[in-house]
Design a protein that fits this description.
The protein has about 210 residues and is of the alpha+beta class. It is built from four helices and ten strands, in the order αββββββββββααα.
Length: about 210
Amino acid sequence: MAQATATTVTLLLLLFLSSASASVQDYCVADLSAADTPAGYPCKKVTKVTSADFVFAGLTMAGNTSNIIKAAVTPAFVGQFPGVNGLGISVARLDIAPGGVVPLHTHPGASELLVVTQGVIYAGFVDTANNVYVATLKKGEVMVFPQGLLHFQINAGGVTAVAIVTFSSSNPGLQITSFALFANSLPSPVVEKVTFLDDAEVKKLKKVLGGTG
C-alpha cells in the first residue's frame, strides 16, 4: 500500500513538473510591427529574437533640454526596448537643465522609482487626500512615486540634474496636467470653468502651450 502511494505521488509530481515546464515562457520580445494592445505587444518569433532585443544604449546620451520646460525624458519603454515586453518593468533617463521642471504629471500604468545620478532635484507627489510629500534629492538618493498620483521634479541646483527612472510597467503611460488642460482643443470657457481661471489667463496658457479653442 505504501509502495503504491509513493508511486502515485511520484507520478503526480512528475506530471506537475512537466506541465509547469511546458507552460513557462522565458520572455515575450515585442513584435513592434504589430499593434499594441492593453495586454501588450504580441511576441516576436523566437527564431527572430537576438541579443540586441535585450540591450538599450539610448540612456548613455543626454536628452535635449532646449524646450519650454528645460527638461527631457529619454524612454526605454517597450516601444524603444522590445525586450521588456510583458516583464512589468521599464526605465528612462531624465535630464533637467538649470531652471528646468517636469510639471505635474501622472503615469496611469505604473509606479515610478527615481534615482538621482547628478545634481540636485526637488521632487514630490500629491496623494488622493491632497497630502503633499516633497524632498530635495542629491546624487544617489531615491524617491518613489505611487502609480497614478500627480508628481513633479524641479532642478534645485546650478548644474544639469540627471536621474535614472524605473517603472513597474513596460509601458507606464504619461499625462502632463498643464498640457492636458491647455495644449488641446477644449473650449476656453470649459477650461475656465474647471480650473477657476479667468479668460485672459486661459488663453495666455493655450497660446504658450499650443492649445486652441
